[in-house]
Write a structure and sequence with these properties.
The protein is an alpha/beta fold. The chain has helices at residues 16-26, 65-74, 76-82, 127-139, 148-157, 213-227, 243-251, 270-275, 291-298, 311-315, 327-339, 341-355, 360-375; strands at 2-6, 34-39, 55-58, 87-90, 105-109, 142-145, 165-167, 187-190, 193-196, 199-203, 232-236, 259-263, 279-282, 303-306, 319-322. The protein has 2 domains: 2-171 and 359-375, Glycogen Phosphorylase B (Rossmann fold, 3-Layer(aba) Sandwich); 187-355, Rossmann fold, CATH 3.40.50. The strands form 3 sheets. A 7-stranded parallel beta sheet has the order 3-2-1-4-5-6-7. A 6-stranded parallel beta sheet has the order 12-11-10-13-14-15, sandwiched between helices.
């Protein structure tokens, strides 16, 4: 069988979706079905190391979300027919898929953030995407949801038939994310930064309000006021929607000198950043899976999660939970982990145990089986 893989919405392999695709490509068997990639010309060499034997076909010369949406509507069917695909795989089906396809299709939905909540809280989406995506999702032959939470949203929000949805959780690379010992050093050098320990870590794009950074900063203020510990708050992630509001709020904090924005953080040094933290906080109002919680747990770091969306499904009993709308509740959990060493050790242990249940090998095996089964119809 010949199967095309759409890389357009995978953001150059730099974000969580790009990592997802890279991990799958690494695990495609060298013999058997023929897979090939298609996407932006700028991504031609993005997957060359992890998938050196897969052909890459450049398409859609005009950049931008709107132009790419129109390419998927008007040009993709002809392209897929000309390539004689037996099936097509869309790793970011919640961001970009064609309205119709001449061959069987499988799409992965990582979240429904563009359709969740009120207009003020939902993730922004282009007008063309918002208009065509629900119908396009319903036309996919199979959908892979990364969590049961996302599956239920597809059923409730988009009216996708339940029988077409399979839940396949993301994995974690335990050879990259694992407990790293640290001595009592006060400074931790992680290129290109130097971090003063102890620190509380949050890894997420800076996006307001869905990532809930402002309430995290409010909780950090309460934490510092109540126990006066030397902790810093490290916010690692690129600026996104309304990031300026978060930074303005942080600048007005009485503890602003202890709040550190890293901007985009190099992926290859991320495991070291996790490993140096005293705790990791996931304050989001919405997550389709909770990859940050899984990475922290696999690193042996205790996790505090908002009791929201898919986070309890991912972390299960391995995290402390808080009301995402109540900064005082979050501050109390932060105080617990910083003052109770036994509790911190227990949640670190639970996290490692929970993370062991996830692997990219299992994710890839299930995903490839679904693709092959669908394309072989």
């Amino acid at each position: 069988m010949k199967i095309g893989i759409d890389t357009f919405a995978c953001e150059g392999g730099k974000t969580a979706i790009g990592i997802y695709l890279t991990q799958l490509l690494k695990r495609i068997p060298p013999s058997g079905d023929h897979f090939e990639l298609f996407g932006w010309n700028s991504d031609r060499f993005t997957y060359a190391v992890d998938a050196p034997d897969l052909e890459y076909i450049s398409r859609c010369r005009i950049s931008g979300r709107a132009a790419n949406s129109l390419w998927h509507i008007a040009r993709y069917p002809r392209f897929a027919r000309a390539r004689s695909y037996d099936g097509c795989f869309f790793p970011a089906a919640h961001k970009q898929i064609p309205s119709r396809s001449p061959c069987p299709t499988v799409g992965v939905v990582h979240d429904m953030a563009a359709y969740w909540g009120s207009r003020k809280t939902r993730e922004s989406a282009g007008a063309v995407i918002r208009m065509i995506l629900p119908n396009a999702l319903r036309r996919l032959d199979r959908i892979i949801a990364v969590s049961s939470w996302v599956k239920q949203e597809l059923i409730d929000l988009v009216k996708v038939r339940e029988s077409s949805i399979e839940v396949v959780p993301n994995g974690i690379d335990h050879g990259i994310f694992y407990p790293r010992p640290h001595n009592e050093e006060s400074m931790l050098l992680i290129q290109p930064f130097s971090f003063r320990r102890p620190y509380i870590l949050c890894i997420s794009r800076i996006e307001h309000p869905v990532k809930n950074h402002i309430r995290l900063i409010q909780a950090f203020n309460l934490f510092k006021e109540q126990i006066k510990y030397p902790h810093r708050l490290v916010l690692a992630g690129p600026d996104s929607y309304h990031a300026e509001k978060v930074k303005e709020f942080a600048g007005a904090s009485p503890f602003r000198n202890d709040i550190f924005f890293t901007g985009h953080f190099p992926m290859k040094h991320l495991p070291e950043l996790y490993a140096g933290a005293d705790m990791v906080v996931i304050p989001s109002l919405y997550e389709g899976f909770g990859m940050g919680a899984l990475e922290a747990m696999s690193s042996g770091i205790p996790v505090i999660c908002a009791r929201a969306a898919s986070l309890p499904e991912t972390a299960d009993a391995a995290a402390l939970y808080f009301d995402p709308y109540d900064p005082a509740d979050l501050a109390a959990r932060m105080i617990t982990l910083s003052t109770d060493g036994a509790a911190a050790q227990e949640y670190a242990r639970r996290g490692l145990e929970r993370a062991a249940a996830f692997s990219w090998d299992a994710c890839a095996k299930q995903t490839l089986a679904i693709i092959q089964e669908t394309a072989g119809k």
